[in-house]
Amino acid sequence: MSAQTQSPVKRLTPPDIRARKGGAPIVSLTAYDSPMAAVMDPHTDLILVGDSVGMVVHGLPNTISVTLEMMILHGQAVMRGSKQALVVVDMPFGSYEQSKEQAFANCVRVLQETGAGAVKLETSVQMAETVRYLVDRAVPVVAHVGLRPQAALADGGFKAKGRDEDSRAKVLAEARAMDEAGAFAIVVEGVAEDVAREVTEQVSAPTIGIGASAACDGQVLVVQDMLGLFDWTPKFVKKYGSLREIADAAFQAYAEDVRARVFPGPEHVYSAKKR
Questions:
Q1: pTM of the complete model beyond 0.90
Q2: Is residue 264 in some structural domain?
Q3: 193 in active site
Q4: Which of 97, 101, 165, 189 is catalytic?
Q5: Measured over all CA atoms, what is the biggest interatomic distance in the chain, rounded to whole angstroms?
């Protein structure tokens, strides 16, 4: 028994999320820094430190160039800002595909260096052995089926899945394989609505949809998309804010004050101490 003082706030765990199958929907968002994680934490069950950080924070054209070091750095920041949500860190492209031993070594590094509660892998039927290997060694895994951004080069872009019979069968097979391999949750991205619904009905793990179906056991969105920081967003995004316009107006007002020499005002500067 540890003698350390326990936090009054209990962080959600992978078993807590798995137990939500068919129950209250799981609320999830991405986060990449401490302040944003702190704001969303009271409202979310699962915070995903997505490799989407490469595109929405670092300005990369896709997620292929995201490194393990980048994911660890952002994972550490999100853990510092959050208190109750389960934090899941994406494993970047090339960090887990070579072998199940490589996957285990890198997943352990992420969990140890960030303090996060789980990792997420973009998965195929062929990855089932790796997922089982990780789960058997106490690494909690969120699987990811359907549209897999890390496969963008091979797929020729970001293309929705499950819209024909072959693709539909592939998505269903991927989801079943990940469920049987022991993933405690499955992200279902960019698939036909009826396919996402069928996946949710067929697997015992909760599904978390993004561009999928309201029938999924939860939903996730990229936070910059839902806050309205970009001019263009995917079809599946609902904008819950207009932060781009708010920020633009704030920057304009600041620039005007600086150029007019009205900022800083008397209330923003220090005066000499009286002797």
A1: yes
A2: no
A3: no
A4: 189
A5: 84
